[in-house]
Every structure is written in structure tokens, then in C-alpha cells.
């Protein structure tokens, strides 16, 4: 019988060095797959797909069926938390997300309490329960949420921004409001991830996609500290559930991040040199990453060489193979297979 701790991903997250690392891919259920595009068309739009538990289960399983990844990540989005707190959310095709903005105390006062989020998010917990029963026995189920800073950048600007300018401006002009917003998102994230775990998520990942724009003390206050709080609260309730932190583009701030926050694994973006990270980050425990997503578009020998280099660089410690960011819609599904074959044959 296979017990939970025999799953490859859980073993890596517990610090085990493996001959072949477990593999999964950010955005592995996505538009580069024809079967995803078909299910997405059936659902109508992206948010309808997120809230339709049966179809969200189906798209989560598609890359597992096709590739046999070691982990499945719940199909949802980091912006469901703002919506569950009462913000308007919609997606503009070809452009990305739009939300009602939060720049004044009056905007903030319109948000609902954390205790109300589950009413909106119940279908997501149902997806987790479905997946828990449907996944192959060796496949680990990952739940996730956005980190408070990254979620706040979208709530403040009402959209994605190249430099997170509006969020930095609110932080400078009304620190009390900015910090109150971060605190609300932190509390909602703890409640949301706890419910995902209770529904069957075996690992959770915190996505801080814009952590790299927090400079100096701001990084400690608004990226590291919320991640530490969320991890501590989850560990108090669910001590055996590993947490993956992803402070994207944290550069030298990746050093010591796992120790300072209590996460079990740090996910590295592809701007990080793997040999450097093996010496300075992996010394604290498991790391995840970090092949450039562009290889999934271009393929070829470069893909093979970079994949081998990453597997070898991290081969002496605990490692989860992944991309450095999400796979893009223009990726070729055959290149994903080439990456997997390369990882599994390297050593
Ligand atoms: O990794 C996975 O497969 C799990 C599901 C997942 C999605 N989004 C599905 C999605 C996860 C973990 C996310 C995280 C997410 N969402 C982040 C953090 C990670 C990152 O990529 O930096 C952010 C910033 C978002 C917000 C978001 N959602 C944006 C900016 C967009 C539009 C950009 C785009 O690619 O079109 C989305 C939409 C989205 N989320 C899609 C998917 C599969 C594409 C939706 C579609 O049109 O079908």
C-alpha cells in the first residue's frame, strides 16, 4: 500500500534527496492544451470555469492524464479572494483581470468580513474534495493562494500593472489603509488555505508574483512577514502540511527566506542561477524550479541542456523540478514531454 509519505513530491518537501526529482509545472492546466481550451469553451468564461467544480476538476486532471506529473495544482485563481471579500472581478479577453479599485477608506469599508468568504469559495473546496478522490494514488494535490502583497497590487490598481505603481503609491500616501488591506487579505488567506487543506489539499503554495518590486525593509514587512504569518497559522492547525513559498524575483532575498518564514520549500524564478541557488538557498532545504518558460515554446537542444543543468545543479539536495513561472499559451505540448523525459533520464 502506498502511504502519503511515499509520494515523490511530499518526500522532496520533507528534505529527501532523490535520484529523479518530482515534476510539476505552474499553469499546467492551461491554454497551451487543446483539451483545456475545449473545456474552457464549454464553461463559457474563465471565472465560470473556476466556480464549476466538475469542470475545474476535469481541467486539473487533464495534464495529469497527458503527462503523469507528480503533482496536480487546484484549478482556481489568486484573485478569487478579492472577489470573495466583495470586490468586483472580471477578465477582459487578451488583456487580463479587472477589479473594482481600493484607494480610499470608503472603498475598504465596502469589503466584507473574512467569515463571509466561504460562501463564494465553497465551489473551490468542492473541487479540492473531487480531486482528492480522483487523482492517481501517487499524485500530490497542491492548493494555493496569492500572497497578500501581490493580491493587494491587483485590488489597489484594479488590474495588473508593470511596476505595481498604484500599490507603492498607496503604501507611501496612506500606510494605515495599505496595512489594513494587507491584514484583511492575510486573514482571508489563512481561512481559505485552511479550508483547502481540510478539503484534501496535501501541500499549499503561496504565490507572491510581485515580491521583487518590494525593496529594502519593504520586502521584510510586506513579503516576508505576511508569508511567515500565514505559514505559522497554517502550521499551528495542520503541522504536517508542507508550504511552498514563491517570492518571485526576490533575487538575493531568496537567501534565508525559508528559515525566516517557516516554509518547507522556496520556489525560484528563472532569473536565479541554479548553481548559485544550490549554494545559498538549497542549504536551508528543498527548492523548486526553475526552467525558463520560453523553452516550452522553442524546445530543442537548448531545452534539454538547461533542463539537465538545473537537475544537476540541484541534485545534491532536495529539489522539485518546475518552470520558473507559468507556462504560456503559445507553448508546444510536445516540448513539455521533452522536458519531462529529460528530467527523468538525466542521471
Ligand atoms: O498553476 C495552475 O495551473 C493553477 C491555477 C492558477 C491560475 N492562476 C489559473 C489561470 C494559478 C496558481 C494562478 C495564479 C495567478 N493568477 C497568479 C500568480 C502566479 C503568476 O502567474 O504570477 C496571478 C498573478 C494571477 C492573476 C491572473 N489570472 C492573471 C494576471 C491572469 C491573466 C493572464 C493570462 O495568462 O491571461 C489570470 C488568468 C488565468 N489564471 C488563466 C489561468 C489558466 C488563463 C485563463 C484563461 O483565459 O483560460
Note down, in words, how this protein is organized:
The model has no long low-confidence stretch (mean pLDDT 97). The protein folds into two domains: 15-21 and 268-347, no CATH class; 74-267, TIM Barrel, CATH 3.20.20. It has helices at residues 8-13, 34-43, 46-51, 53-67, 80-84, 105-109, 117-134, 148-157, 165-173, 175-199, 217-237, 257-261, 274-280, 295-298, 300-313, 333-345, and strands spanning 71-73, 89-92, 96-99, 140-146, 203-208, 243-247, 265-267, 286-291, 319-323. Helix 12 (257-261) links the parallel strand 6 and strand 7. Helix 7 (117-134) packs parallel to helix 10 (175-199), helix 8 (148-157) packs across helix 10 and helix 10 runs parallel beside helix 11 (217-237). The chain is globular, with a radius of gyration of 19 Å. The protein has a seven-stranded parallel β-sheet with strand order 1-4-5-6-7-8-9. The chain has a two-stranded antiparallel sheet with strand order 2-3. It has 16 helices and nine strands. The protein is α/β, with parallel strands linked by helices. Bound molecules: coproporphyrinogen III. Coproporphyrinogen III binds at residues 26-31, 40, 46, 73, 75-79, 96-97, 144, 146, 160, 207, 209, 326. Its EC number is 4.1.1.37. It comes from Epibacterium ulvae. Residues 22-31, 142-158 form the Uroporphyrinogen decarboxylase (URO-D) domain.
Amino acid at each position: 500500500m502506498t502511504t502519503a509519505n511515499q509520494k515523490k513530491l511530499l518526500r522532496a518537501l520533507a528534505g529527501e534527496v532523490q535520484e529523479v526529482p518530482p515534476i510539476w509545472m505552474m499553469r499546467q492546466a492551461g491554454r497551451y492544451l487543446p483539451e483545456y481550451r475545449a473545456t474552457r469553451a464549454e464553461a463559457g468564461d474563465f471565472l465560470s470555469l473556476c466556480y464549476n467544480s466538475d469542470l475545474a476538476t476535469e481541467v486539473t486532471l487533464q495534464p495529469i492524464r497527458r503527462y503523469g506529473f507528480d503533482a496536480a495544482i487546484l484549478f482556481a485563481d489568486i484573485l478569487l479572494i478579492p472577489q470573495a471579500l466583495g470586490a468586483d472581478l472580471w477578465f477582459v479577453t487578451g488583456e487580463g483581470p479587472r477589479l473594482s479599485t481600493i484607494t480610499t477608506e470608503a472603498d475598504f469599508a465596502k469589503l466584507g468580513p473574512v467569515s463571509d468568504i466561504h460562501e463564494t469559495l465553497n465551489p473551490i473546496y468542492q473541487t479540492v474534495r473531487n480531486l482528492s478522490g480522483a487523482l492517481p494514488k501517487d499524485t500530490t494535490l497542491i492548493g494555493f493562494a496569492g500572497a497578500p502583497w501581490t493580491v493587494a497590487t491587483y485590488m489597489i490598481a484594479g488590474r495588473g500593472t508593470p511596476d505595481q505603481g498604484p500599490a507603492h503609491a498607496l503604501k507611501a500616501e496612506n500606510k494605515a489603509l495599505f496595512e489594513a488591506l494587507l491584514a484583511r487579505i492575510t486573514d482571508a488567506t489563512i481561512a481559505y488555505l485552511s479550508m483547502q487543506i481540510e478539503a484534501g489539499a496535501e501541500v499549499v503554495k503561496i504565490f507572491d508574483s510581485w515580491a521583487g518590486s518590494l525593496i529594502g525593509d519593504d520586502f521584510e514587512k510586506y513579503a516576508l512577514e505576511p508569508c511567515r504569518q500565514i505559514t505559522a497559522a497554517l502550521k499551528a492547525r495542520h503541522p504536517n502540511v508542507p508550504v511552498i513559498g514563491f517570492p518571485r524575483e526576490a533575487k538575493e532575498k531568496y537567501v534565508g527566506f525559508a528559515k525566516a518564514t517557516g516554509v518547507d520549500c522556496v520556489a525560484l524564478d528563472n532569473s536565479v542561477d541554479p548553481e548559485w541557488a544550490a549554494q545559498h538557498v538549497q542549504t536551508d532545504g528543498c527548492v523548486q524550479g526553475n526552467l525558463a518558460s520560453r523553452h516550452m515554446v522553442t524546445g530543442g537542444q537548448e531545452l534539454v541542456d538547461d533542463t539537465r543543468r538545473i537537475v544537476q545543479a540541484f541534485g545534491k539536495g532536495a529539489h522539485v523540478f518546475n518552470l520558473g513561472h507559468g507556462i504560456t499559451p503559445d507553448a508546444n505540448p510536445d516540448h513539455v514531454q521533452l522536458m519531462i523525459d529529460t528530467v527523468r533520464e538525466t542521471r
